[in-house]
Amino acid sequence: MNWSDLYWQRITPLHVILWPLSLFFIAIIALKQLLYRRNILRSVRLPIPVIIVDSITVGDSGKTSLIIWLINSLKLYGLHPGIISQGFSENYGPPLPVTTSSKLSEVGSKSLLLAYQSKGTCPIWIGYDRIKVAQALLAAHPECNVLICDDALLDFRLHRDVEIVVVDNSKHNFGNGLVLPAGPLRDSLSRLNKVDGIVMNEKSSKLVIDTKNHVRTFHMKPESECFVNLLDPDKRSTTAAFKDKPIHVITDFSHAQSFLEQVRYLKLNVKSHTYLDNFQFPKEQLQTQGDEIILMREEDAVKYLKSASEQFWVLHEEIAIDIGLREVILKKLREKFMDPKLLDILVCPLCKGPLVYKKSEQELICKADRLAYPIRDGIPVMLEEEARELPAEEEV
Ligand SMILES: [Zn+2]
């Protein structure tokens, strides 16, 4: 347990002194929410549906895993998601696209991890002003028809259609139960009653949080583990294949204990190298000999994308989430896609040209490519392989 965990878990005289500030903070959030609800302050509605994925406590809580799951689920239904995020906490910069070639110093490690794990299957943009970031993403990628926002639970300026909150069930829980700055909560727990879904990240958890009062709670669990090569993510290996190899585990101080426990549980022969948080090993210290391999957490490994060799591997966890969450999200999206105005702005994913909405056939037609994209169960399936080719004689 590091100092920040200790701070969030306890109530000391310092916490008591800070408590009035927490109450003030809650009052400000409630007031802002009320002003936006009464339309005294205007939130910005983007032309496409927005899904917020955030945590109610400080820290990540497993948002990245959930976002990757969400990208894959939405793409399976023929949707084209785009991701927006502030990127890192002190990012005051203009909108910026993120790919695995982006500079760590410009985009931060969390954005790089998202780019790495999503394998370039959807655009990711970061920046200080979420509205501008979303607009920049949509201008560059008009084929995107749903936005996932990695944070922004408390940024009421951005109108949202779905709110999903991830709760880390493994160690922090809700800490001392107080709101910032006296506790780790970013809003009062009653906020959980108003969101569309709560996802419990049950990473190696023995704790059980009472969620009886909170509707729509879904569970996210690690399903299986494997090794993924950092340079070539398509190269995968079972953990058993690494049992007899000398493995150098490199991890930062904050995550050393949990990561080493996880690796030792897999009965691997490891030598650990722990470094101070935010330190980066110089390239010359990362040389290996013979069949030695270097193993890292995915979150740390993305910092070494540019200096990695073939010997760099990450421990990847496949996760599983209750299927009900997908249904909750699709139900909300179906309601949005009932609006003909939204269907009118969708573009062809191939030529990025306009589409003609044929209500009776429930199809969106691209005249240029002579393709008819089906609207199935209320969701436009914007996939070339699912589209109907228009015969020469069919009028559009
Ligand atoms: Zn087209």
From TrEMBL:
GO terms for molecular function: ATP binding; lipid-A 4'-kinase activity. Keywords: ATP-binding, Kinase, Lipid A biosynthesis, Lipid biosynthesis, Lipid metabolism, Membrane, Nucleotide-binding, Transferase, Transmembrane, Transmembrane helix. Coiled coil: none annotated. Pathway: Glycolipid biosynthesis; lipid IV(A) biosynthesis; lipid IV(A) from (3R)-3-hydroxytetradecanoyl-[acyl-carrier-protein] and UDP-N-acetyl-alpha-D-glucosamine: step 6/6. One of its GO terms (cellular component) is plasma membrane. The keyword Transmembrane helix applies. Gene3D superfamilies: 2.20.25.10. Its EC number is 2.7.1.130. This is Multifunctional fusion protein. It comes from Nitrosomonas nitrosa. The gene is lpxK.
